[in-house]
Structure formats: C-alpha cells, structure tokens
Amino acid sequence: MVRAVLAAFLLLVAGPGMARETVRLWPGTPPGSGAPSGPEHVGTEGAARGAYTNITTPRMEIYRPAHPNGAAVLVLGGGGYFRIQIDSAARPIARWLAGEGVTAIVLFYRLPGDGWNEDAPFQDAQRALRMIRARASALHIDPHRLGVLGSSAGGHLAGIMATRGDHDFYAHVDAADDQPATPDFAALIYPVISMRPPLDTTRTARHLRDLPDYRAAYSVEEHVGPATPPIFLAHALDDPIANPGHSLAMFQAMRAAHRPVEMHLFQHGGHSWGMGVPGREVAAWPGLFLTWLRANGIVPGGAEAASTTSE
Which CATH number fits domain 2-26+47-299: 3.40.50.720, 3.40.50.1820, 3.30.70.2860, 3.90.550.10? Predict the structure, then answer.
C-alpha cells in the first residue's frame, strides 16, 4: 500500500534546476473526523492572498534541488490553524532551501478552522516526517538530517513535532509509520509556543482549546527535555500577533534543559514576514539560519569544512 501511495506522484517544474512533486499523505481516509464544507480555496486579497483554506487532501509538495546535499526540511506555513500561508511564506522558503541544496517539503495539513479534528495538524505533520524518512533513499537525503521549519502556527506545529514527535497522534497505518517522527533540528520563525497566560491570546490557541488538557499538552516549552533537537528561533520585538515572549519561553526552556539553541530578536518586523522584504531587518533570518545549519553540521560549509579548506 505504501508503494502505491508513494507512486502517486505528480512531477511539476518548480524553477531552474529543481523539480516539484506532490504526494498524498494518507492511503485512504485520514484519521480523525470532520471535513471542509466546500472545495479547497486560495485567497486573493490582503493577508489571505496566497493562503490556502478548506484543505481537503492533506499532502506534501516536495522540492528537489539540482544538487542535493543530503539535508531535508519539512516547511510548515502559518495561519492560526484556520489557513496556511503557502504562496507568501512556505513556497518561497522551500524554493530558497532547494536553491541551497536542501530538499524542501511544503506540507498542506488539515486545519481545525476548516472543521477537521483539532489534532489533525499534528497527525499530518507526524505522518509527513515518517513518510519522508521512509523515502530517504529515493529522495537522496540523510534520514538523520531531517528538520522542520515552521512560522507562526506552523512554528507551533514544528515545535510540537520537535518536543512530542515520539507521541503517536494517530494509529499505525502502514510500514512508513515504523519510522521515527522526531525531527533532527527545528527552526521556529515568529512562532506560537505557549498555551499559558498571558501568551494564550492567539487564534492558534483558540483552535486547540477543546483538546484534552490543551494548555499542558500543547505548550511547546513544557515538553523540552534532554532529547529535544537543536532549535533556531527568529522573532520581531514588535510582533502584534505572536508576542516575542513565545520565543523567549522556548529559548529559556532549551537553556534550562542544556539543549542547543540560537535566537535572533529583531527590533522591527511585525508578523508574517516569510522570507522578509529585502532591506528590512527580518530579511536577515535566512542567512542566519543557513549559517546555523552549517555550524551544526547539517549542511556542508561549516567550521569543519573551513578548517579542512585552510589546510
């Protein structure tokens, strides 16, 4: 069954030197309950421009670089769990990563705001990580260099995968589910982290509040432990949607657990900046993240490579 699902790929041109493929996450009906009341929709105006709602078919959009370096990143767009910023954030980030040799996978996950069960995003993200590792050889990636990158609510989703990836959010479906679902690193960009007051004011939190013990179960900072992978954080101090206290809470939790963490706080930038407007402060984050990936040995070109070159 896994082979049948994985064979159902649509090959598309994504840009110079890279290809884009799409694959469904589930071989049949997804776990959980609920469904959108209408067809999938892409916004055309304002903050909703390029944002997807009414996700009917959870799926991965895979961007293969011309020269893969073995690393891979699952990209999780934000949108408060009622939409996903695909065209303004997730896809540009994926194209940039692929241009740097990183295999990038954009996830179209189910949304509680569309009527799906409230834990549907976690089911879809966990399934995606397992499927990517199951296809590591075909994707020319190292299954031990697979990370997640999420922005806003996508940052919350990425954080839950980084801290609770070993918790089964759905029942075993096929052989792909034998793979681990905890990423090897995570980048959380203007993320929602905590469900606790005074940070529980986001729409992200409102869409999760009917889950059992949601404040404790879905406050990312409360699940940081000795096995939490390295974390990269970026946030603007003037963010009006996700208080920078979210990133600060995650940073402090990582430091308390003696886990690798790097945080960048920008004086200006607001929220939902995606790759960042050229010339603005927040546009520095992709370069900082790439430097972090190199420094942590996730992509080539770090301190070890520099040392070898100098010799």
Answer: 3.40.50.1820
